[in-house]
Amino acid sequence: MDLYQVRYFLTIAETGNFSRAAERLYLSQPSLSTGIKKLEQELGVALFERGGRRTVLTQAGRAFSKNATIIMAQYQSALHELKGFHAQPVLRLGTLTTMRIGELADLVSRFQQDRPGVTIELRDGKQEQLREWLEEGEIDVALTILGDREEPQASISLFSQPLLLAVPLSHPFAQRTSVRLAELDGQPFIDRTNCEFAERECEILEAKNICPKVVARASHEEWVISWLRAGLGISVMPKWRGLTGIVYLPIVDLNFQRTIGIKWRHQQSSEIVERFCHYAASHNWAVD
Fold first, then answer.
1. CATH of 90-158+261-282, one of 3.30.497.10, 3.90.830.10, 3.40.190.10, 3.40.30.10
2. pTM, rounded to two decimals
3. CATH 3.40.190.10, domain 160-258, yes or no
């Protein structure tokens, strides 16, 4: 059963006459009759009672009329939805879970002032997830760590961040200018489960027989920041400018640093993607 046959059927049912239906559909009457015969053969029933000045629906035709009306309504609804999709462009943005949501909100707000018709779809994940999503076309751009594996994606470096020891103001370390790695032994520690340096950090601590006391684990930066401010423990994390209630200290015998950039696919670049990358590159990121 083809959609045109359903349209033919409904038009005949509405006009009550093959000739008038053919005129409305801009068809010859033989073409219309052929289309209806094919539909009746496929359904295995007669849909119209032929003869007389007016064409009437059979009992099977009246039953089919309800379904045919639903089919056409669903088709029109699908068309309307797809037209809306094309009229409302979407930018699919992927970001590290270790990025601050406030920073992204500021960036997206600036971008949408320039492109108010663009919908932003945000997904967060680890570095490897973002790389896969970008390669598979599930996202358009990724805010992620830049490393050696940049092809087949284009990239722009945005900023670099050291990973420091973050402590609440109430902690004794808050009065210090630096700490040594060994001083973390036995300290209440908030584990950032999506930290890009987690494996290397664990290896270093184990090699030096240093064992912080893990009191909490969190997958997103905002949770870690909130727990730090509450005095729950300390954590090794990227340095963000303007945070209150937290003191950052360098660990003299630990040197982690990450470079954050924006990536996109050469072959899938568009005006919207290029514009967003421009805003990301010119954004005033809250890092020192």
1. 3.40.190.10
2. 0.67
3. yes
